[in-house]
């Protein structure tokens, strides 16, 4: 992370490492916590709740999986940041959690049919919907880029998301995972979601 920041003259403190702990036990998260990490990502609400309840309360919890609308209220009660907004139904349920939640709109930047997220053409309209919900605080955009095998091929997608984020006034940019976070940082990511590089392969 520090090398990637240095290569483009960024302050390393401007990038948040979200340790994606999905499928890993609470003991693994506590080990990472003891090493200084404080921001963790989960992708299933029911799997995450026992971990959240058993771990220190100064952890910032990020929801990074697809958010089913019928789980959104519960997610809003337990998570501090939702990375995967893409529907009005999610917004209605998150509002019911009755606490302020930082949120990012998920953009399907490569228009992959098998992935969630909105297409860029819908972004302006959906952004207007988000700002109607007082408890859901819009922070920026998130994407899961296509699996292209080498991180340099991701650069155009990350750059496109950064330009979209600048245009609509987002201040957070969630992009980059274990295999491509360096290019994501060079292209302006403020939150990288890293699981495998920290915890090893998921069981």
Low-pLDDT runs = none
Share of helical residues: 25-40%
Radius of gyration: 16 Å
The arrangement of helices and strands along the chain is HEHEHEHEHEHEHEHEH
Total number of β-strand segments?
8
Morphology: globular
Distance between the termini: 26 Å
Number of helices: 9
Please tell me about this protein's structure.
The chain is of the alpha/beta class and 203 residues long. Helices cover 37% and strands 19% of the residues. It has 9 helices and 8 strands. It has helices spanning 2-7, 26-34, 45-54, 69-78, 88-96, 123-130, 155-168, 181-186, 196-199, and strands at residues 16-20, 39-42, 60-63, 81-85, 101-106, 136-142, 172-174, 191-194. It has an 8-stranded parallel beta sheet. Helix 4 (69-78) crosses helix 5 (88-96).
Give me a quick take on this structure.
With 203 residues, the chain is α/β, with parallel strands linked by helices. 37% of the residues lie in helices and 19% in strands.
Which terms summarize this structure?
8 strands; 8-stranded parallel beta sheet; alpha/beta; globular; 203 residues
Secondary structure blueprint with pairings:
Layout: H1 2-7, E1 16-20, H2 26-34, E2 39-42, H3 45-54, E3 60-63, H4 69-78, E4 81-85, H5 88-96, E5 101-106, H6 123-130, E6 136-142, H7 155-168, E7 172-174, H8 181-186, E8 191-194, H9 196-199
Parallel strand pairs: 1-2, 1-8, 2-3, 3-4, 4-5, 5-6, 6-7
